[in-house]
Amino acid sequence: MLNKLDAALSFHQNALRVRGQRQELIAANIANADTPNFKARDIDFKTAMQAATAGVSREALVANKTSPLHLDSLPSNTISQSGAPGEPLFRPMVQGSVDGNTVDMDVERNQFADNGIRYEASLTLINAQLKQMLAALQP
Known about the structure:
Structural class: mainly alpha
Number of strands: 2
């Protein structure tokens, strides 16, 4: 029983952990927006989640295309694709700067807000899942 409970909640646990790490990186980018030669970093969420859930049963995580009109998964092009899965990567420079800093505050603010909303959504999903489990246990 405990293994099933752990398996049911591990995906959300991993998602919250990766989102938390990503929020810290984005906050560091914003804090260092005026630091000369600072290179903005980010996490490719999809790759990090695949690495985090490698030990979890993949059957529950596979999404099937039920229509040929559905779009295929697209690779993230916002982050330089190098390094180990889930490792912080350097963002490509959007606009050059004299001091070598690659932080674009518009991008960082948007990513910070987007990641925060997705973190809250994960909390809402895990809360709903726990409520369903508690309801099932009630006599």
